[in-house]
Amino acid sequence: MPRYGGIRIGDAVSCAVECLNGNKLLLYTQKTGVPAYCPLPDFMVKSLEEILPVSERYFFWARVSKLTTAAGDWQAKLKKLFEKVRLPDWHTYRLRHTSAAELLLAGVPLERVSILVGHTSIRITEKHCAQWVRPHQEQAEADVRRAWGLDPIALLKTKGTPEVHEKREAIG
After folding, report:
1. Which of 12, 19, 85, 154 is the most exposed place for a label (fewest CB within 10 A)?
2. Which DSSP helix (H) or strand (E) runs through 25?
């Protein structure tokens, strides 16, 4: 669920069976308490419906330990899995980050990604994910290219191509 729902490992561990409604998962994120509705891919919903929950109420938590302990146990299990498939530097937070990054690269606005991952402020999402906002990257590249049109050395090096003459006329 961190990979496709963009949720924290603790939120995945404390996910109650009754929170799965069709292909959506209702979560109250542990960090913020904000309700988040996470649509899940069909294959994930099918997997959740087919597994035997760890307890009557939760998919992955028996409630015999604190949530932080259960989340740590799952992190350790997943770390072993990552090592087994030769991803030793991976950790569960990367799954969440990958989910957010892929949404942003697909053009989902930062504001919506912020809601989906349960951040209380868009500033938090900007801090961690701004490099994945495609329009920001494209605009930064365009700004650099435009600046070259104002640079005397860059203008000399282009040896007066039509593109440079157009830029000079636009500037002057």
Report:
1. 85
2. strand 24-28
